[in-house]
């Protein structure tokens, strides 16, 4: 799964430990400081973007186009903001391009930079960003 490959990349890069990175939904309670990796329909698959899509998809790895959302929740604004930018820089870098995540070749395009999203009922700060991945199918 794409989410597992991205999770492993974050662990390998020293962004955080396995217990603090979850797939799917944001946990309601613990851990307070958590990274969530979620997939959704690709934002580039609308008919309005069809020609742009064809120009952006690199040859050889266009089997799957997936939008991935990264959410960081933290009890401290500065720490949460730093964590989401660390993730952004690890996955997207200074510009979109090829990345090898857990032996899966991906072409990653940033859809937006990290930004503040909300503060939850427990005063934890939530940051998010989205990117689009073009890659091959799971084996």
Total helices: the number is 3
- CATH class term: Alpha Beta
Q: Architecture, CATH level 2?
A: 2-Layer Sandwich
Q: What overall form do the CA principal axes indicate?
A: globular
**Portion in beta strands:** 35-45%
Distance between the termini: 9 Å
Helix share, percent: 10-25%
Number of domains: 1
Mean pLDDT: 84
Determine the CATH topology: STM4215-like
- Taking all Cα atoms into account, the compactness measure Rg is 15 Å
Indicate the low-confidence ranges by residue numbers.
Answer: none
Given helix and strand content, the structural type is alpha+beta
Number of strands: 7
Order of secondary-structure elements:
HEEHEHEEEE
Give the biggest beta sheet: 7 strands, mixed
Please explain how this structure is put together.
It is globular and about 40 Å long. The protein has three helices and seven strands, in the order αββαβαββββ. The chain is an alpha+beta fold. Strands 1, 2, 3, 4, 5, 6 and 7 form a seven-stranded mixed β-sheet that branches. The protein has one domain: STM4215-like, CATH 3.30.2000.
Write the topology of this structure:
Layout: H1 2-12, E1 21-23, E2 34-40, H2 50-56, E3 64-74, H3 77-91, E4 97-101, E5 104-110, E6 115-119, E7 125-135
Parallel strand pairs: 1-2
Antiparallel strand pairs: 2-3, 3-7, 4-5, 5-7, 6-7
